[in-house]
Design a protein that fits this description.
With 215 residues, the protein is mostly beta strands. 11% of the residues lie in helices and 42% in strands. The chain has a single domain, classed as Galactose-binding domain-like (Jelly Rolls), CATH 2.60.120.260.
Length: 215
């Protein structure tokens, strides 16, 4: 009987701990302006130039999905440029787990441009310093923006030993098709940014993982 009780308690504790330490997602919003400037975000990016006015957002774990689209301006000469970036409002985690980042946005008005690069960086809270520019990076994605709907990519991210106020920042690199004038797709941050970072247990509560299984 005691053995059966121990198994039941272990399963319950494992389930509770999985809830406490589940991966954290941030919602792209249009309610808070990004703290980082385009110039500061560019330091995180594979690109060396900014596309006109990039689409920006400060993501929030409890925010309301962005419902306001922005028309991008992507030059037609066929060179990649940083067309958008999104940052976390706060992270409050000094040990970032490795794992998969799912990075997504939504095209509401299509045009013949391509989302080609993505970079995930760890920044200080003031956005004045890129602390690690290679949390996750990908080039040559070749994701067409010539159709409406959600566009996403999944990339493997490295673990990070972070400062308590460090944030993540993601830049998107786009390229025009070079066959006509500027490309101007409309995009919005209506999707979650899924991260491998662990959810934190409520402050002041002991870890249930180490609860003794004794009777």
């Amino acid at each position: 009987m005691a053995k059966r009780q121990s198994i039941v308690v272990f399963v319950l504790l494992f389930w509770v701990s999985s809830l406490l330490y589940a991966a954290r997602d941030w919602q792209g919003t249009n309610t808070a302006a990004a703290v980082c400037t385009a110039t500061e975000a560019l330091a995180c990016s594979t690109e060396t130039v900014v596309c006109g006015t990039p689409d920006t957002s400060q993501a929030d774990e409890t925010g309301t999905a962005d419902s306001t689209a922005l028309s991008l301006t992507i030059a037609a000469e066929g060179a990649t440029c940083m067309c958008a970036f999104i940052e976390a409002d706060t992270v409050n985690d000094t040990s970032w787990a490795s794992g998969t980042w799912v990075l997504a946005w939504e095209v509401t008005v299509a045009d013949t441009a391509t989302w080609d690069n993505v970079d995930v960086c760890r920044m200080n809270a003031a956005c004045s310093s890129v602390l690690d520019g290679s949390v996750a990076n990908a080039t040559s994605l070749a994701i067409s923006l010539n159709s409406t709907g959600v566009k996403s990519t999944s990339q493997s991210g490295s673990s990070q030993t972070a400062g308590a106020t460090d944030i993540w920042l993601v830049t998107f690199g786009c390229i025009g098709n070079g066959a006509h004038g500027n490309d101007s797709p409309d995009v919005q941050w209506s999707q979650l940014i899924e991260t491998p970072l662990d959810a934190l247990a409520p402050a002041g509560n002991p870890s249930l993982v180490n609860f003794p299984l004794t009777f």
